[in-house]
Structure formats: C-alpha cells, structure tokens
Amino acid sequence: MKNVTDSFVSLGHWPAAGSFGFNTDILATNPINLSVVLGVLIFFGKGVSDLLDNRKQRILNTIRNSEELREGAVEQLEKARARLRDVEIEAERYRANGYYEIDQEKLNSINSTYKTLEQQENSKNETIHFEQQRAINQVRQRIFQQALQGALGTLNSCLNNELHLRTINANIGSMKELTD
Question: What is the extent of the structural domain holding 85?
Fold first, then answer.
C-alpha cells in the first residue's frame, strides 16, 4: 500500500510518456479538476447569469404588468359595483314609482267608473222622470180632452139657441163692466 504522504513528496515524478492511465490519488487530482470545473463554470456561467438576469427581468416585468392589470381590473370592478348600486337604486325608484303609478291608475279607474255609473244613474233617473212627466201630460191631455168632449156634449145637449144667445150676451155684458 502506498502512503498518502508519498504523493506529495513525489510531485515531481510523472509517469513515462506514452502511457495513459488514471491517477487514483484523490488529493493530487482534486485541485486540478476543481480549477478546470471552476474555469468552465465561470466561462459559461457569464452567459447563464445574463440569461438568468434576462429571465428575472421578464418575470419582474410580467409581475409588474400583472399588478397593473390587477389594479385596472380592481378599478373596473369598483366602477362596475358603483354602477350596479346606481342601477339598483334607479330600478328601486322606478319600481316604487311604477307601483305608485299603478295605484294612481287604479284609483283613477275606480273614480272614473264611479263617475260614469253616477252619470248613468242620473241619466236613467232623468229619463224616468221625463217619461213619467210625459205620461202624466198625456194622461192629463186625454182627461182634458175627454172632459172637454163631455162638457161640449153636455152643453150641446142642454143648450138650445135661445139659451146659448143669452149666455153669450151675459158674458159680453160682464166683460163690459170689467172694462169700464
């Protein structure tokens, strides 16, 4: 077995040229491997950090845009809510006015119907009164005609020419007395 300290002592000892092999001494190969890996990472890492910075900027821009859009959406939502409240208030006012107008129309219709019925009742009563008066006048006229015909018939049967002349002369005499 080889001693670990032997590899540090024999640093100047290299295998012969033309031979290829693996150096299994971890302590001797690690600094070389680490320096190569770090060099490669630093060389290629610059591009990766630029990519990461670009990606970070895009993500930040997307977040800012999203925040702006969210703020705009919140503003629009508040405006929509305010408009909805206004519309609901307006609708309630129209509803209340509509109910009031319906009640007013109902009352107007009832009053109009009542007035129409009252006018029809008055017209009916006037028509009945007129017809009664007409019937009474017709009955009076017939009674008067019948009485007149009866009186004329009685007078014609009772009066003769001499009595008739005396009645006329008496009436003319009383007329003269009244005029004097």
Answer: 45-177
pTM for the structure as a whole? 0.37
Are 159 and 167 within 8 A, CB to CB? yes
Q: Are 42 and 21 in contact (CB under 8 A)?
A: no
CA dist 55 and 127 (Å) reads 103
Rounded distance between C-alpha atoms, residue 96 and residue 102, angstroms: 10
State pLDDT tens for residues 24-64.
Answer: 776 667 777 788 888 887 777 676 677 778 889 999 999 99
Nearest-angstrom CA–CA distance, 80 and 86: 10
Residue 166 belongs to a domain: yes
Examine residue 33 and state whether it is found in any structural domain, yes or no. no
Q: Is residue 126 part of a domain?
A: yes
